[in-house]
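Fill in residues.
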């Protein structure tokens, strides 16, 4: 069953809100951007038979279809962003990622458990498609973000800035799946890679060390930003 996983000695069952659409499409992307789509939770059972009894009462979730439906959009977004960077002579690096079905399932379980009642697909699951843009200078990232926001085909509807350095743009595909474009200064990108903390939501036992490294990275980035920037 695609609603069940075995983790830490127990069988977990993912419960999702009931939508008034065809059951097999219960978690499909057409309602991904709905802020009111809440009520996700995970139940735990000691044995598989109990977990199956619970899961069999719910429509199945086709994780492969969720990803497969967005492969073309992933390539299209990647092409648009790459063309814009080239058109306006930005030499920033670009890294892209499309979650694998098994990765999507695992991440969904983890985030529902982490956020509980606060979990929504719009705000907590908008990185199935991710485009990372990395540039040595923060000023260039601001220019790039402004440029991307003006591109109607990207359908960007939200912008957040972290520590006055990292910019997160959220857009949606034609199917309504939300995705992210993350713009990192090079030093903070290395910090993010080191912590494996792209989503800014994962708890970590070494939080103190992560925070210390973050402050050092920001200090170094400030020094870089004081210099002359090159597009």
């Amino acid at each position: 069953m695609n609603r069940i996983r075995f983790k830490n000695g127990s069988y977990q069952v993912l419960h999702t809100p009931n939508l008034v659409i065809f059951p097999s499409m219960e978690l499909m992307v057409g309602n991904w951007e709905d802020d009111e789509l809440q009520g996700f939770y995970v139940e735990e059972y000691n044995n598989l038979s109990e977990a199956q009894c619970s899961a069999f009462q719910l429509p199945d979730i086709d994780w492969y279809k969720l990803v497969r439906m967005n492969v073309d959009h992933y390539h299209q977004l990647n092409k648009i962003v790459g063309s814009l960077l080239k058109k306006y002579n930005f030499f920033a690096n670009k890294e892209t990622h499309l979650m694998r079905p098994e990765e999507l399932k695992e991440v969904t379980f983890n985030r529902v458990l982490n956020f509980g009642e606060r979990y929504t697909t719009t705000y907590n699951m908008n990185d199935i498609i991710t485009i990372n843009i990395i540039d040595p200078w923060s000023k260039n990232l601001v220019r790039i973000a402004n440029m991307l926001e003006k591109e109607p085909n990207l359908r960007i509807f939200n912008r957040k800035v972290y520590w006055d350095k990292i910019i997160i743009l959220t857009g949606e595909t034609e199917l309504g799946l939300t995705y992210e474009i993350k713009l990192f200064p090079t030093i903070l990108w290395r910090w993010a890679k080191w912590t494996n903390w792209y989503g800014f939501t994962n708890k970590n036992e070494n939080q103190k060390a992560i925070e210390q490294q973050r402050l050092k990275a920001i200090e170094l980035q400030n020094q870089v930003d004081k210099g002359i920037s090159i597009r």
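The helical segments are 48-55, 63-68, 71-87, 101-115, 121-124, 138-149, 186-195, 207-226.
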